[in-house]
Amino acid sequence: MAIENRERIVTRFIEDEMKDSFINYSMSVIMSRALPDVRDGLKPVHRRILYAMHEQGLMPNRPFKKSATVVGDVLGKYHPHGDTAVYDALVRMVQDFSLRYPLINGQGNFGSIDGDPAAAYRYTETKLLPISVEMLSDIEKETVDFQPNFDDRLEEPTVLPAKAPNLLINGSSGIAVGMATNIPPHNLGEVVDACIALIDDQEITIDELMGIVPGPDFPTGGYIYGMEGIREAYHTGRGRLRVRARAYTETKNSGREAIIINEIPFMVNKSKLLEDMADLVRDKKVEGVSDIRDESDREGMRIVVDLKRDAVAEVLLNQFYAKTQLQTTFGVIFLALVDHVPKVLNLKELIQHFVNHRHEVVTRRTRFELKKAEERAHILEGLKIAIDNLDEVIEIIRSSHTTDIAKNRLIKQFELSEIQAQAILDLRLARLTGLEREKLDQEYEELIKTIARLKSILDSRELRMQLIKEELQEIKSKYADPRRTELLLDSGEFNIEDLIAEEEMVITISHLGYIKRLPVTTYRRQARGGRGKSGQTTRETDFLEHMFIASTHDYILYFTAKGLVYWLKVHEIPQAGRTAQGKAIVNLINIDKEDKIAAMLPVREFSENRSVTIATRKGIIKKTNLAAFGNPRRVGIRAIQVPEDDVVIEAKLTDGTNDIVLATRRGQAIRFHEDKVRQMGRTAYGVRGIRLEGSDYVIGMVVVKRDSTLLVVSEKGLGKRSAISDYRVTNRGGKGIITLRCGPKTGELVTIKEVVNDDELILITQHGLIIRIPLTTVKVIGRNTMGVRLINLAEGDRVVDVARIVPGEDTDQENGVLGVETREKEGSQGEEETGGEEGSENGSLPPG
């Protein structure tokens, strides 16, 4: 018997087959692999990893589990691809140099910025980070759609609820078929503020959003050089950014300069960068370098390029920018899936899609919670009926032969639903006590309120948007941190103040006139009595003489000892390393070589409602309207006409309502109201503020502006706070009263400051040591005392200056801050108070 041939051959042109097959493959890559969803900013593999870890219970407060467990779970349930692809994606979610806000907490070797690979997944362990929990929050409340997994056994989410705007804060990169995405990371706080601004004003422009989100913020820091690329990317969805390493120069003890690189561009391999730099030097394509070495450690990155004696640091740095990855180009493509379709978006559209997603999540969550609340209220209503008719209910149940008969009789007798009747049958006897019945009533009342609140949310878009704003503010308060990447102007672009993040800076000037600025966060907070940390490497004949705290947006008026004033922006002062000497101030302002800086005054605007009050060493005081200093020339203008035997020692802003306190080297002080000093022209000398005896001279001036205390510090490291009320108001020109009992153990007075409990101090010594202490460790004691120990000084060292700072959230952070660890010196909290106005005994002081 012949076998029938059932084979069916279809004739098809190969070009048609390739076209259809390639389209199917392309769509698979685009939809399921390479591009992120605009709503949660995740590709499918990342979403599946987070969801699988959530299902496994790998919460931040739970123990770590092997990465192999996570990889296996993802492969077996959701992601039918290779284990390498899953593990590589997981590793990147751990690395703090790859993601601006890592999503997974890793334990073990997860690679390095040098390009070292992660250990195999059998060696490493993971669990979720708190911000990932926010990405998954409310997923069990039907807030997102689910779809069958690859074999239809399980379900997986099509998108995560995503409380955080992950696409912008962490960025994304991927190459699909015929298209690619490359979204840079941004600062969480800025993006949240932009989301809130868009919620408040739907007509907000992209330029207005750029005022809130000025540019990307890479996890590795560095600079973005030029704003045109950012502007183009935010308006069109495509742009090119020039990213530069953060570098500065240091002068070593030998007098030679070194280039210090502490941040490199995003996604640059540090080892490869060092190799390329060394090759350029070896091949003599870059000349003037004597050594290149990597001094990076767990505290941060530090690449040192030692220069030869005649080399110019700026020239060499520009050569490295041009020839190595110290400067790279980041091509921005804001491409993401919108309703399963790839689309290039501008900044406003990216934010709008996230806000729309959150609105849908909040709406669906509210509906779910309302449904559950109504179901529970329905059951409670049945239970209340049963309790109110308890005897009859018990009789019905006892007289019924089966549960179904009892249920049907209850439904018929009390007009209950089947759910209510079943709840009555399931009721435990313990719930029949009086206390439990009260709890049922209380629970029902709370549910009624909850139902009303949820219905009001569903009925009002305004309430829903307010809820979204509150949740975004909560995310910001928990996870936002300062910007890491600084934005620099290219030539020909607009005002640099619009691009520089406002930041508190420590400005120091040495005795020989070297100036620099550092972020306040460079100096760690210590307990009173600690030894401090090295703040600057000085020459044998040089020492640090002045310190000031100011914002990068402030103007600084530099008053010289000879009575001239110069004008400079804080950001124009070069930023240098903690131990760097800085730059000669004569290279920044045209100050005479025989003159020196006496006072520095931060000013935002030159208002006519305020005055500059100047004090001199000989006790002269002068007040001039601030508007008179609004346009100084590069060569300086006259601020006060001082004779050859006198110098300016301080300048302060006053508003016409302040008291002034002058203090002298021998511990005398006088307080008088500023109206005792009339307004004078810039070239006037002034009037007598305090009468001095012998060789005494004025060391400081305080303008009293608030309810505070006066701090005085002596050159041997003793200090104290006294109430301002201890200093009676008198006429100017008197001898004053005792503010510090000076003696051999204290030395003479160094400074006087107005402080409050929340302030912090930075003390600086002649040998360059710096200590930062909170004012809460310095007690308020009598005016006529010797004080307490603020710093332990080495033999021959002495305090030369003190700065007051307002503390912020800038201490004791783990990443990217110099000297972050706070180690309290043993016994440093012990109080040493000696002397008093009432004649108490003098105690002995420990060695300084």
3D structure, described in words:
With 848 residues, this protein is α+β, with helices and mostly antiparallel strands. Among the domains are: 80 residues, Gyrase A, domain 2 (2-Layer Sandwich); 304 residues, DNA gyrase/topoisomerase IV, subunit A, C-terminal (Neuraminidase, 6 Propeller), CATH 2.120.10. Helices cover 28% and strands 24% of the residues. It has 17 helices and 41 strands. It has a four-stranded mixed sheet with strand order 14-9-8-17. Strands 10-11-13-12 form a four-stranded antiparallel sheet, with helices on one face. Strands 21-18-19-24 form a four-stranded antiparallel sheet, with no helix packed on it. Strand 18 and strand 19 form a beta hairpin. It is globular. The C terminus is likely disordered.
What labels describe this entry?
848 residues; alpha+beta; Gyrase A, domain 2; Neuraminidase; four-stranded mixed sheet; four-stranded antiparallel sheet; 17 helices; globular
What's the total count of β strands? 41
Relevant CATH superfamily of the domain at 502-805 = DNA gyrase/topoisomerase IV, subunit A, C-terminal
Helix content: 25-40%
Instruction: Classify the fold: give the CATH topology of the domain at 502-805.
Output: Neuraminidase
Order of strands in the sheet with most strands: 14-9-8-17
CATH architecture of the domain at 502-805: 6 Propeller
Q: Span from first to last CA?
A: 115 Å
* Rg calc: 35 Å
Mean pLDDT: 84
Q: Which class do the helix and strand fractions yield?
A: alpha+beta
